[in-house]
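Lab channel / #folding
Pinned by the channel admin:
"Please post every new chain as: sequence first, then the structure tokens as a reply. Keep commentary short and put observations after the output so the thread stays searchable."

First post following the new format, from NK:
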Amino acid sequence: MADFSTLKNPQWESRLYVARASFTLLVVLLMLGVLLWRYHDLQINRHQDFATLADNNRIHVRALPPARGLIYDRNGVLLADNRPGFTLSIVAERTKNLEQLLADVGELLAFKDTELARFEKQLKRRRPYESVPLRFNLSETEQALVAVNEHRLAGVEVSAQLIRNYPLGAELAHVVGYTGRINERELKRFDAKRYKGSHMTGKTGLEKYYEDQLLGEVGYEHVETNARGRVMRVLERTDPVPGADLQLFLDSRLQKIAIQALGAERGAVVALDTASGGVLALASSPSFDPNLFVTGISTKAYKALTGSPAQPLFDRALRGQYPPGSTVKPVFGLAALDAGAVTMGYRIYDPGYYQLEGDKHKYRDWKRGGHGSKISLYDAIVQSCDTFFYDIGFRSGIDVLHDYGSRFGYGTQTGIDLPAEARGIMPSRDWKQGARGRVWYPGDTVNVSIGQGFMLATPLQMAVAVSRLAMRGEVSQPQLVSHVGNELARPVSELAKIEIPARYWDLVLDAMAGVVRDVRGTARRAIGNIDYTMAGKTGTAQVVGIKQDERYDASKLAKLQLDHALFIAYAPIDKPRIAVAVIVENGEHGSSTAAPVARAVIDAYLHYYPESLETAPAAGVLAPSFAVESTNEPG
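Reply from TO:
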């Protein structure tokens, strides 16, 4: 048997064992060192990084939208306020499957395609962990449905927000305007920081014009949330600054009376404080409910408004442009006197028409057969004699008419604190050349001299003109807002006075008084007995042309083809305090249709604010009248 003991080497085996054990220990120590280094790096060196990441998952910064400023009338009546509402929003990072979440919520609340489309657009431009609104103004039933299913709606938030509300609804829709959701075009234009957390902005009216003042300043809060994104506690808070409140010159009672006086007619009423230019009433009829637009109007309701022949969305007082008709006669009468085209004693014979030399065309007077002989400027204004103004307009020329018309506010924006004001047209030679590419003809001047032809004016411009007449050339800028917060909102502007000799003012303004009180006055029967003094001017504006040998016959025309009815007035005469302009679309006669509307507004104003009220001689007190017998004198 072989002996293998001689092959063993204990010393060598011992060294091998020690070497292997040492290597193993070295590897273990090395790995332990790496582990300790990694542990140190994670726990010591990068502690703050991971703590920050952890906080980002449970601590978030939320924007706090400010309360929008309120809007009041001159007597403190609330015209625009904020009421609480609930908004459903989604934080995309808090759900594993956004599409499934939207489907689940859609089963509960039945979203519209427009809501989902708007949500998807906002989702693309949001920041991480920023909530995106999906539905505004949740009902109590909808809130309950979301609350019951909260366990399966990770990422859904229901938060309380203030929603704009307009207590008087349609009465002031065109003046106050409304707010609506911010669209993409607006978002690009706005300061993103100021609108953080806000989803609404002013769209029309005062809401749009005073957006910067009404908006306020956004606040912020740091909140701690749980794994489902629910807020556990508020860690830090910076309160938002609410927007400034607006107080108006406007009296909501006068506004209501103006709308009631218009009744079912389409038209506009503008009333101004003659001294300050403050807007007392700015009514456009028909109107609409602005509350429909705040959280999103339905397609059906919007089509009903835009498709209506009455155009309720159209602001007639500010944007409606109409031929002012005979309401411009006092202005052009002053123009002819001051320019020296005629004298105060100038008189004409009126056969019922006017002809330019060498022209067979007859420019007809409204009164068939004319007003007779020795018609003066006083008579022409009181009886609204077209032939007289054809004559003095031609004698003055379009340059004079344009100059004085512009001074009284025609053809230029008034500067009122509302957006989208129309300019109207006070035509001139240059205007026609630029707009029509044609030269100016004498016949154009004849038409403009009675407020027809190319001339167009807004009801606001007509009110401005009669206010400047009442104040004998003193010029003030119309303004709706009197105070923004505690600060005056009046613009600092110096407007030049219209300098015309006193004797010319006396003649023209006395004639305007005669329109109301003279037995021949076109508004005498319409205004009736009043316990104060009033001056005014009726007007009628043609809607469709009538051939040379034809006669106006309302019975053969559709309602939309009838003449517009206009009336301007101020009161009291010796100390004017209110100026009013009225247009009733297709109302035919300014005397019978528009004048009673103006009287209703002036009656109410002088009743509400009776200080320094003049007493008219031998006058009885009558209630405001909205309809009187036609005088058949269109003005």
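NK: The longest helix spans residues 10-45.
TO: also worth noting, The radius of gyration is 38 Å.
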